[in-house]
Specification:
single chain; 570 residues; alpha/beta; 14% strand
């Protein structure tokens, strides 16, 4: 807000009162303007009265109205302080103080504090609670593209210690000291320095993180999946190691809280899957590195936008020192689109070779042992207590295939949503392989699978694996329309695999078979006749070998015959 002054001092005071009465009108509403007091039409002959102007007008004004950012005396006629006046007005728009500092309370505003705390977290690379000299210098270089002299840094530390003892020690500047330093900048009118720090970490004028950082655009073709790239896995491994302070191989609740400090908290999808129960944990229930990576592999597969968002919160872009705001995408990998093929009028999925994360739905009769299978998948003990699954139950773990290749397998028990999901084509598209389970000790269990196959035709387009659970109990003759073996043979599928939660080798065999079926759906698609074996070609390695040998014999005989005739003639 600008004010024009006349040579009549009394008229000037009246105009001041009217001007700030208008300001008070706006003050009660949800309107925020940067305020500057401009004393204009003062010729250079009034320079000797500057001291009186400052003492009599500027100082009382600044004391009474805390929202006034600056007072300046200028003269357009003599070109006195004109550039400075326009600079202040421009700075009020490009580097506003209002979002940062509350003059009434003489404190930084909550959003500014939250943003600066996150920046401190990202710059504290060893997470010891202090910005060391090197870390502070890196912050200086990142924000202002120039280094700071060691003596200047010592002056900063001395200033902080004079204000807050212990805020700057040999280990570096504490979080409290970092906030006090920025508060000092705001009070000294150097709020452009604060904005330089905030904008270097992609904060907008509303003190929110730029959408281009949290939600960068990524093209995912239909029938493609999204996985973590090697860079993404490495970043998450480093994050786990950094916050595992006690080196016990697991993240405790306190360590998880500190890890997720710069984010809105643990992702909602993780809470819905009952994390950390959805992954491998150690003996005291803390998520291990294996479980940590598996959870992020599942999150990326099911909802890659969440992974991108949290990579932005964790400072993936900033820690790479990338100038490209969309570089968080380098933490992900988009697989090739899955294609379909047709043989004898039957559609089936083509093999996939570039995927390492697969999603498996497990369905079957209630009480057949699906939950126990999921628990065994995570290395947990079987429980005798039966509790029906109401809500979907999701777990994920790594699977090592023969040859050493490692993949991640997501197992989803559908619960009461089983019917709704199986008739939803969009949901079935997210399923890489379907596991149909029954209780081999319950004679009524297999009929449920026959009913599912008859009632939900979408199943016939998926890779399917039949599993007979509780194989450690006595096998019962199934009272169903068809027995398991003839039924699977009729559909050109392998007979059911007999599995027990307590049999480790059988479980490993099942997991590898599920992954292989997802990779090569042709061999386990219901109703797809196997390819006819090609007749052995007449020209085979043995034929070629014997032909070459016979040719050599004939050539040798012809040579010997010619040699013998020549020898007789001589």
């Amino acid at each position: 807000m600008m004010k024009a002054d006349t040579d009549d001092h009394e008229s000037e005071l009246q105009q001041q009162q009217q001007q700030f009465q208008q300001h008070n009108m706006f003050e009660g509403r949800d309107v925020s303007f940067p305020d500057y007091y401009l004393l204009n039409n003062n010729s250079s002959s009034d320079v000797e009265d500057l001291e009186n102007v400052i003492n009599d007008e500027f100082v009382p004004l600044l004391k009474e109205f805390k929202e006034v950012e600056a007072c300046i005396r200028c003269c357009a006629k003599d070109n006195h302080n004109v550039n400075q006046a326009f600079y202040l007005c421009q700075r009020a728009v490009s580097h506003p103080i209002a979002p940062l500092y509350d003059y009434k309370d003489s404190s930084l505003k909550p959003l500014a504090v939250a943003a600066l705390n996150r920046i401190f977290y990202l710059c504290d690379r060893d997470q010891d609670g202090f910005l060391s000299d090197d870390e502070f210098m890196q912050l200086q270089q990142k924000c202002f593209h120039k280094s700071m002299d060691v003596n200047e840094l010592e002056d900063v530390k001395q200033t902080l210690n004079a204000s807050i003892p212990g805020s700057a020690v040999a280990r570096g500047i504490s979080n409290e000291g970092f906030l006090a330093l920025n508060k000092f900048y705001a009070e000294m009118g150097r709020h452009e320095t604060i904005w330089g720090i905030l904008r270097a970490f992609h904060y907008t004028d509303s003190l929110s993180i730029d959408e281009k950082i949290l939600h960068p655009k990524i093209d995912v073709p239909p029938n493609s999946s999204v996985e973590l790239s090697p860079k993404g896995y490495k970043f998450l491994v480093d994050l786990f190691v950094l916050f595992d302070k006690d080196n016990d191989g697991g993240l405790s609740d306190d360590e998880l809280y500190k890890l997720f400090f710069p984010t809105p908290g643990i992702p909602k999808s993780w809470q819905e899957t009952n994390f950390p129960r959805s992954v491998v944990c150690n003996e005291v229930g803390y998520v291990t590195l294996q479980g940590w990576l598996a959870q992020w592999a599942m999150t990326t597969y099911l909802d890659h936008r969440t992974t991108l968002e949290y990579l932005g919160y964790f400072g993936y872009v900033d820690k790479l020192n990338s100038k490209n705001g969309s570089s968080a995408i380098s933490g992900l990998h988009v697989t090739r689109a899955r294609k379909t093929r047709k043989r004898n009028g039957k559609l089936f999925r083509a093999p996939v070779m570039d995927r390492t994360v697969f999603n498996c739905f497990i369905v079957g009769a209630s009480g057949c042992g699906k939950t126990s299978l999921l628990e065994s998948f995570l290395g947990r003990r079987y429980s005798e207590h039966y509790s029906p699954t109401i809500q979907p139950n999701v777990v994920v773990n790594s699977v090592e295939l023969p040859g050493g290749k490692q993949c991640y397998l997501i197992l989803e028990e559908l619960g009461e949503l089983e019917g709704a999901i199986l008739e939803n084509q969009a949901k079935l598209e997210t399923c890489d392989v379907l596991c149909l389970a029954y209780d081999s000790s319950d004679p009524e269990s297999f009929q449920r699978l026959i009913d599912l196959m008859n009632n939900y035709p979408g199943i016939h387009d998926l890779p399917v694996v039949f599993v007979a659970l509780k194989a450690d109990l006595d096998r019962q003759q199934q009272r169903s329309d068809q027995q398991p073996e003839p039924f699977t043979k009729q559909m050109y599928l392998q007979p059911p695999m007999h599995i027990s939660s307590g049999w480790g080798p059988s479980l490993s065999e099942l997991l590898c078979h599920l992954v292989n079926s997802a990779c090569n759906p042709r061999v386990c698609t219901p109703g797809l006749e196997p390819e006819p074996e090609e007749a052995e070609s007449f020209v085979n390695p043995f034929t070629i070998g014997y032909g070459a040998l016979g040719f050599m014999v004939i050539v040798s005989m012809w040579y010997l015959r010619g040699y013998a005739i020549g020898h007789r003639a001589s």
